[in-house]
Amino acid sequence: MRYGFIAALAAFAVVLAPAVKAEDAPKDVTGIFLMSDFPAVTLRPGETSTVSLHLQNYDTKPERLALSVSGVPDGWTATLMGGGQPVQAAMPAANSSVSLELRLDVPKSATMGTQTLTVAAAGVSQNLQLPIAVTLAKDLPAKLTLTPQLPQLRGTSKSSFEYQLGIKNDSGKKLTVSLSAQAPENFDASFTEQYGSQELNAVPVDAGQTKDVKLKVTPPNTAAAGSYKVTARVAAEDASATTDLGLDITGQPRLDVSGREGLVSTRASAGKETSVPVVITNTGTAPADEIQLSGSAPSGWKVTFDPKTIDRIAPNDNKEVQALITPTEKAIAGDYVTTIRAAARGESASSTFRVTVTTSTMWGIAGVGIIGVALLVMVGAVARFGRR
Question: Span 2-136: which CATH code?
C-alpha cells in the first residue's frame, strides 16, 4: 500500500514538472538521463545540505524508474526528495523532466575528505547512475560578490553621487566585510548604511545573505566636466570583490565679483551719480548665461548698472560693467558699504564696495555764504553798539 502511494506521488510530480518543448530538445538525442548541475560539492560536517538533480526524458516513452543511493558513509543520512516529499521512484513524461533533490545529513564527527555517493534510477530498459563527489571541510572558502544597483550617475561638481551596493556573502559562515573605495584625487568617498548617515568601514554579513550599503562620492568644486571612475572594493579573509562605478560631471558656471584691478572702494559726492567699474568673472567649467546684476546700498541711495544684464561669460573669462551709485543728497560725509551681486542659473556671487561720501559743492558754497552773512551781521552790530 505504501509502495503504491509513493509511486502515485512520483507520477504526480511528473505531471507538475515543466514540459520540455519538442523544438527545445537536442536534435538526434533520445533517452532518459539522470543529471545534476553540480555533481561535486563541498559541505561542512554537522549541517544539512541538498544537491539538485533532475531526470530528463528526450523523446522516449515514459518509464517508471526506481531511485536509490549507494556508497553512503556510516552515520550519514541520504534522502531523495521530490515535490518536497521523500520518493523512491519517478516517471518523467516524454520531453519532460522531473526535479529531484539529494538531501545529505552529515554528522559533526564525520571524517574530513571526499566521499563518492552514487544515485541510481533503474527501470525495465534503463539503468542510470550518477556519481556525486562530496568533500567535507571545516570552513568553506570565503566568497563575496558586489553588485551596484545603478553603476553610472550624472550630475554637476556640486552634486553628491550616491551608489546603492549589494554585498552578498556566498560563504558558509558569517563574515565581517571591510569597505573601501578608490576615487580620483580630491574626491571624497564614504560608505554608510542604506537608510542611515553613520559612516562605515566594515559591515557584518550573515552566511548566504546580502547586505545593502551606500557609497557617497563628492567631487571637489573645482572638478572639470568629464567622466570619472570610482572603484568600490569589499574584502573578508582571503576573499574580495570589486566593481567599477562611473560618474559624469557636467559643466557648472561659477561667478566672482570684484572691482577693476581688485579695487573695491570709490569716492562719491552726495546727490551725484558716480560710475564704479565692476568685473564679473566666470571661474567655472560651463558658460554663465543671462547674468542679472543687482545692488543694495544705504536707504535713499540709488544703484543701477550699465549694462543691466550680461548675455554670456565663457569659462575662465570676464566682463566689465559700470555700477552707477548715487548717494542721497542729505548723505553725511563718511564711509558707506554697497553690495554688488551677480546671479545666473542658480549660481550667484557678491562683493562689498566701500563708498566714501563727500558733501556737495553747493552745500559748501551755501555754508560759506552763511558764514559771510554771519560775519557781516556781527561787524555791523559791533560798529553800531560800539559807539554807544
Answer: 2.60.40.10
